[in-house]
Amino acid sequence: MTDLPASKVDLKAVISTPARADHSEGMSYLQSVPRRIVTLYLPLAIIVFILLFPFYWMALTSVKPDDQLLDLERYNPFWTWNPTFKHFHKLLFESYYPHWLWNTMYVAVCATVLSIFASVLAAYAIVRLRYKGANLVGGLIFLAYLVPPSILFIPLATVVFQYGLFDSPLALILTYPTILIPFSTWLLMGYFKTIPFELEECALIDGASRWQILIKIVLPLAIPGLISAFIFCFTLCWNEFIYALTFLQSTSNKTVPVAIVNEFVDGDIYRWGSLMAGALAGSLPLVILYAFFVEHYVSAMTGAVKE
Amino acid sequence: MREVNAWTQLKHNRNWLGFWFMLPAMAFLIFFLAYPLGLGIWLSFTDTRIGRVGQFIGTENYEWLWDDAIFWLSVTNTLLYTFVASAFKFGIGLYLALLLNEHMPFKAMLRAMVLIPFIVPTVLSALAFWWIFDSQFSIISWSLKHLGLISQNINFLGDTTWARICVIFANVWRGVPFVAITLLAGLQTVSPSLYEAATLDGASRWQMFRHITYPLLTPIIAVVMTFSVLFTFTDFQLIWAMTRGGPVNATHLMATLSYQRAIIAGQLGEGAAISSAMIPFLLAAIMVSWFGLQRRKWQQGESND
């Protein structure tokens, strides 16, 4: 049991590295402080600044009063002394925004749950049942991961239309799993491989069925993997754009990314405040989720690449 | 002996059981991935339009595209976008990974912050860039003017060269965290004792990077960069949110052009031909990925399980 998460340890260490047991930082004393400032802190500060500046700008714009947004001479654009929640108010009470948020959430949760269910079964079968041709199927699923949505959306649009799913959230719930299943199957295969085979043998001898083994032994041990797969799939759904753009038409059915691009972008010169408020409000749920599960995100990202 | 018996009994129905377990995933992938993939190639040989079933017209769509200057411009744009953005993502990503691998205060927090651009939906951050690159109220133009470097606002998204630079910048901005964090995971598997030994031997920092870090990192670099190239090549949302292919088609990628022709103009057949034309490029990238993975297994002495 102790060697169970061994292969995942390094992944988690990526984000949270409390005092590391190996003496990897032991050599940093060889560098002088000024040298470290120039070679390490300065470049790092510049890169982090560039990476985070758009979010600062987004947040600042969304609370600036309109006149300050467009008058760059009288007010310093980098700060505002009289923030307003006018743009958020407009977003929440004068637009479909709450609707769009709900649509996005609904589609993302449904598609994620469906995909995780399908992937758990598939990953378990590939790794542990090892039916005839399991390796081949594993390889094909990896290839499916590499098929991008932007070459599928045209034929999928005709399929969606034929089945009468056009302009319905169901179209997205059924098509998103094609992006999510390959990824999460691959990720879960990695987790299932680390679970000792002996546990399952014991259960088999005790007369457990494969289904019972999966539910009662494998899944509880793979919970970190399930969380990783879940939140990563959720993020991918939230981020998905081209299918939602193609398959949905009516304003109230849209998801946040599509709605903001299509409904908020009009000729109004004062649109920037509400546009940025919309972008911020659409990003916050994911950032909050991320803040709680940083380690799982990283292991999902690196796990899928490493397997 | 009982164990063996249990096993032999299970082997009988293992294939069937495997079939049932695979069914949900396979149903999704066959109906919504494999079938549309084939259908897309078929559509590219027809003159299907929205609301009309198409006739088989052979390679006419492709012949039409062959003489279409905008199509070739989009191919060039896509290749330029992919290569320049991937090169920068790799360079900056690797550099950032090396920096983050150092020991310093607030390390965990810094690493968590770096990944935020990757978490936020692309379209929403692209809108922020759209605002940052606005022709009149751009904060960059404002800052440069106040520093006395320029006298006129830069028309970021209205000028063909600037527009290309801007979309590539936004793409690099979003891709760097992914590359950096995955490479960082790779870096942490490199044993520190190797560096200690190299230091004792008098190796410089560059030599350590060149002869220890880089070779050990090559397999993961191959995989990460294939993913990165693949997703950059087929990018759609960033362009659509920032420029919609403009100005004068200077930032049209193959994906955005196929959307414009197929969905907006209604020429499904022609759009399908453009997206099918992406497949050979993707196959080339997948081959690279395949050999990258093979090499990794070989390096680690893993058996092919």
UniProtKB/TrEMBL annotation, chain A:
Signal peptide: none annotated. It is a multi-pass membrane protein. Residues 101-293 form the ABC transmembrane type-1 domain. InterPro entries: BP-dep_ABC_trans_perm, MetI-like, MetI-like_sf. The chain crosses the membrane at residues 37-59, 105-127, 139-164, 170-192, 213-238, 272-293. One of its GO terms (cellular component) is plasma membrane. SUPFAM superfamilies: MetI-like. GO terms for biological process: transmembrane transport. Keywords: Cell membrane, Membrane, Transmembrane, Transmembrane helix, Transport. Its main location: membrane. It comes from the Bacteria. It is found in: Cell membrane. It holds the Pfam family BPD_transp_1. Belongs to the binding-protein-dependent transport system permease family. This is Sugar ABC transporter permease. It comes from Bradyrhizobium neotropicale.
